[in-house]
Model the fold of this input.
Amino acid sequence: MVSRFFCEHLVYGRVYSSEKGKKMATIGNIESLSRFLEKACRRYGLEEQITQASVTEDGRDEGGRRPSSPEINAAWQRAARIFQEGQIVKGVVTGWNRGGLLVRWDELQGFVPASQLKDTPIFDSDDSRDEKLAHWVGEELSLKVIELDRSRNRLVFSERATIWGPKDGERLLAQIMPGEVRRGYVSNLCDFGVFVDLGGIDGLVHISELSWGRVNHPRELVSIGQEVEVFVLNVDREHRRIALSFKRLRPDPWTVVDQKYHPGQVLSATITNVVDFGAFARIEDGLEGLVHISELAETQVSHPSQVVRPGDRVLVRILRIDSANHRLSLSMRQVAQPASDSGFVGG
Done:
């Protein structure tokens, strides 16, 4: 949801409190602080007079009304035209939310995702996000419309798109096909995956498609601005969405595990996770097995953390391989024992 809030714009709301000297407004879930008032309102010559107010999340007031006028309707028509023609326009940043910047263009409010800024910011925390995005408030940006849906009151801009040709995104969207391998640049990282700029439009590599192995966060594998190769999984032209994959560029290691490894084999592995019942160890990218707590050491262990920590390099012996269910049983305790010893549990 993108709240509508900018200078000279009327919104339906309900004042619930005001406090002299605190120039802050809450409209929906957006907080625009004194930085906006000092910069943006000064730009338009307005007085810094504002109270706290709230509106429903869809922009209607409590009576169910939605602001509309001939001027607003005409602005949507102009937005549709510049979208079709790929024109570059100017928009003023009026606020921010978790995902990016709120901008005013013409009579409308739009949204610029953080990933669509030329200098994509990297956020270490919520406070860091607020601090970095606040620096844009009151600034004028050169923008292109990359998504427009009047029925949903959705107008999305991009600053990065101004470096593309007028029809680059549309041409790419029409041509790209599932099964292709494309090159692009990482435009943004988030908890659920990686956005890749393919040259006019972004695709998403979901975190489940980053690697055949365990990935806690995309930053473990790639960084913003990095050139990458991707496999195209799916193209949804109606909604302008492209699903991508890193891991499909390589074979699934579980499909060849029986050919490469066998019970009794001793290998070097890296501990990736420690849990109450044992430790997980990676023998190669995409292949992890469990060292049960009973297989960590010859002596009794009350908790695996007494023996190993994530990141430790250890020797393990393969006990069992279940490729169908993606399970690999490993032992550290039996490493020193020859495979022919009665102490080895194979098969």
